[in-house]
Amino acid sequence: MSMLGSSVRAARKLCSSLITARYRNSSLLLGEGDSCPFVLNNVLSSPRGAAAKVATPYSFTSIASGDNRLTDAYSAIELALDSVVKIFTVSSSPNYFLPWQNKPQRETTGSGFVIPGKKILTNAHVVADHTFVLVRRHGSPTKYRAEVQAVGHECDLAILVVESEEFWEGMTFLELGDIPFLQEAVAVVGYPQGGDNISVTKGIVSRVEPTQYVHGATQLMAIQIDAAINPGNSGGPAIMANKVAGIAFQNLSGAENIGYIIPVPVIKHFIAGVEENGKYVGFCTLGLSCQPTENIQLRMHFRMLPELTGVLISKINPLSNAHKLLKKDDIILGFDGIPVANDGTVPFRNRERITFDHLVSMKKPNEKALLRILRDGEEKEISITVKPLQPLVPVHQFDRLPSYYIFAGLVFVPLTQPYLHEYGEDWYNTSPRRMCELALRELPKKPGEQLVILSQVCMCFGQLKCDLYSSRKQFTKDSLI
After folding, report:
1. Rounded distance, CA 364 to CA 265, Å?
2. Of 46, 234, 361, 431, catalytic
3. CB 331: neighbour CB atoms within 10 A?
4. Which helix (DSSP H) or strand (DSSP E) does residue 165 occupy?
5. What are the beta bridge partners of residue 150?
6. Residue 323 known to be catalytic
């Protein structure tokens, strides 16, 4: 017993000294004593599909007996330290009430990580409306100039490139993994507010479903975790099993420990689109508005048999391919051979469900999709081409200057949601009601169509004759609101 006790104490002392020496110069704080409650405990060791152990400290005796889970966690941290960077952005957004002016410059910080091809992946909102971008490696005092190669504001992703070869020396490229299962643990690495050094927090996956992306106001798949995601974490990787499981990008205001990461399928779709087309191409949509068919009377009205399930088409975008092939009151029964439930969901992994819009968004532009529909009580199969569609009123106008036209002191601008945002955080209630309704519900009737509004009347100095009649000639009644 005495020999065994001395061996255990020697192992503990040896591990403690090794950990102290290895991480003395890093920003991670490791526990000491009989056990090591490491921040990434069990993060990288839980089997796929199994529930991860939470708050179970690794003991040094388990290492001495051959358990290598702690060393796996250490190697993952070493991987992150050589791949995660801090991003410094100087940006200036337009003033949409005075479109010929920009707002004052502001400085923000975010996170990013390197991927194969000598590229840095981060969030679009980290570099939105940028004037210049700098990046800094962990443990380095030097900042390097970075250029934005591609940016997708709908999916809140961006790719940066750095010309300096010195920056890439010793960097480790992270690989993309899979969607984590529920209750699997991930480690969020980044540079959140509260300090200048790198930060690592642990979180458990609690939900996988389409979520509203705040930056681009789009509905795409997201992973909800309970890790603390704060300003500055944006763009940092969520690591699981030495691979990236997602990118931190937003949290839920007013709630505690609810953060979201962008999953790998969305990331791969963005990167593949940039590599194939040389630029960001967007996410596809059918251009349909649908409603559930859970109401029994509704199902009877459209002659749906008890074994049939689907959703009812209530509105079709005139610019979509579906406008030529589908009709209002058609019922979508299946998408690419997958049955659609009455609530609009399809099977996803192990007894999970997800809205069928996710299947549409993962399609490539101009790719075909096979829809099984019910029309007038008869089932039909229709092949439809999916593509990205632009709304009548643009949702965002990042990285571009607003257009405007001044005639005789009258300032005309296209109606955009950023223009409405100038009315404040409560713009939905404080902006003109007619403009708000058009921005959120109106569909375009032809490509390139815009809604033009009279923004303001400039004060005229001196003698100026304003010919309102000629101005009405240039802007028809249908194009003005």
Report:
1. 12
2. 234
3. 25
4. helix 165-168
5. 159
6. no
Check if 357 is active-site.
no
152 touches 262 (CB < 8 A)? no
Catalytic entry in 45, 91, 156, 269:
156
Look up residue 245 and give its DSSP letter.
E
Rounded-to-integer distance, Cα 201 and Cα 232, Å = 13
pLDDT in tens, 350-367: 888 999 999 999 999 999
Task: Name every residue whose Cβ is closer than 8 Å to that of residue 263 and which is 6 or more positions away in sequence.
Answer: 179, 208, 221, 222, 223, 245, 246
Contacts with 176 (C-beta within 8 Å, 6 or more apart), sequence order: 115, 243, 244, 264, 267, 268
**Greatest CA separation found in the chain?**
104
No. of helices (H) and no. of strands (E), the chain? 13, 25
Task: Report percent pLDDT > 70 for the chain.
Answer: 80
Q: The pTM is what? A: 0.78
pLDDT at 6: 43
Long-range contacts of 5-9 (CB under 8 A, 24+ apart): 7/64, 8/60, 8/61, 8/64
The torsion angle over the Cα atoms of residues 252, 54, 180 and 139, rounded to 10 degrees, is 80
As to burial, measured by CB atoms within 10 angstroms (0-12 exposed, 13-18 middle, 19+ buried), residue 61 is middle
What pLDDT does 76 receive?
60
Q: How far is CA 200 from the centre of its chain?
A: 20
* pLDDT tens-digit readout, 273-327: 999 988 898 999 999 999 999 999 999 999 999 999 999 999 999 999 999 999 9
Nearest alpha carbon to residue 84 among 122, 123, 126? 122
From the candidates 45, 83, 125, 215, give the one annotated as an active-site residue: 125
Place of tokens 């051979």: 337
Question: Would residue 234 show up in a list of annotated catalytic residues for this protein?
Answer: yes
Contact between residue 221 and residue 354 where contact means Cβ atoms under 8 Å apart: yes
d(CA 22, CA 20): 6
Q: Report the C-alpha gap between 181 and 312 in whole angstroms.
A: 31
Q: 7 φ, ψ to 5°?
A: -65, -45
Both structure tokens of 391: 């709304």
Q: Which candidate, 57, 356, 325, places its Cα nearest to that of 219?
A: 356
